[in-house]
Amino acid sequence: MAAAGNRAEIIRSLFAAYLANDRARVEAAFAEDFRFSTPYGENIDKPTYFAECWRDSGWIGRHEIERIMVDGVEAFVTYRCVARDGKSFRNTEFFVFDGDKVSRIDVYFGPSHQDGELVRQDR
Predict the structure, then answer these.
(1) What is the mean pLDDT of each run of 10 residues along the chain (123 residues)?
(2) What stretch or stretches form a coiled coil here (predicted)?
(3) Using a CB cutoff of 8 Å and minimum separation of 24, what contacts does 27-34 make?
(4) What is the pTM of this model?
């Protein structure tokens, strides 16, 4: 079983793989029974995630990981995603691990964030 420090590195590696648009590396990091939830859909399985949620990440300029907190097989990561056009948003994701594989990610969307201030979003 991966140690807590290794789980933080697995998360960092996943963010790097997303930025590189490396689907194969992301797929390899997910357990076969992987589930994904957002406010738009709950408990999406691995094939559905890649069919409906995966897209070219060329629009992403960078991820700024603010914190990763690991507690046993669970972890939270809060990050700011900055698009190439300068727009940004901030999310928190809850990860559950099965050994060194990610078995679940729940995404909690956040508002844009600029110069340390929250930026009001249009609905």
Answers:
(1) 76 95 96 93 93 86 95 96 87 96 92 68 55
(2) none
(3) 29/101, 29/102, 30/101, 30/102, 30/103, 31/98, 31/101, 31/102, 31/103, 33/98, 33/103, 34/101, 34/102, 34/103, 34/104, 34/105
(4) 0.85
